[in-house]
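Effector binding domain-containing protein
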Amino acid sequence: MGWVESLQHAIDYMEVHMEEPVTIEEIAKEANSSIFHFQRTFAILTDCSVAEYLRRRRLTLAAQELSATDQKIIDIAYKYGYDTPEAFSKAFRRQHGVTPSDARKNLGELQSYNRLAIQVNLKGADPMKYRIVEKESFQAIGVKREFSLQGGENLSGIPDMWMEMNQDGTSDAIAKLQSGEINGLLGICANFEDGTTMDYWIAAESAQAVPEGFKQIEIPASKWGVFEVHGAMPDAMPKVWKQIFSEWFPSNQYENAGTAELEVYPAGDAYSEEYVSEIWIPLKRKQ
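Tokens:
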């Protein structure tokens, strides 16, 4: 089963279990994927976390039942995972802009999030610039933080980490350590094999001694797909990630090797439309 079919299989599993508590571990297992790679792929292709998708779909189904049945509001709340009417009402209003009571009376408009169907484009309208690189293992020096893979903590925590490091000068200090082939600051996703947490590094390739306050990581030897990213941050990077998963992987003989992934941010104005950055993905031949 290909990764597109696996992802759709996991979505179908979520739909069948909308009225039951399901974990990200169970969902990722249906896709034959690690939690990290399933969450990442899902978010890249849908612009939505797994938890947010479940919440939106459950509140969509709840609104449909409020409009079409006489079932008690409290029973519908419990059915879709809310322990109290207050929690259900708050979440319902946030999505739909009306209360459950208003929906029951058909007052106001409702927001419907429909069941997802994953589609891929085997021929992209926009050309992708990439190269295949064989690189021996190398050292990177920087700052590491551990993030939970539960509830999308990694998706929200990593941008906050970058903001903090840029503001307090840590990013500049790391950039001065760069002495390897890869020119720029590295955002490294690593150590996500256990399925519950991941490490994220802001680092630079460097063979220097590790200064006080910093740590070192070894990136294993790999065949890399290196994709050019043209445009201003933060929008340009997610756009190319989406192209990679929706266009490049389905039409190539490679798949993600499952080891550390890199985003490379060279010196320059990252908010300029002329800025050029890179995504490095470890590759292996499809089975």
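The CA atoms of residues 35 and 195 lie 5 Å apart.
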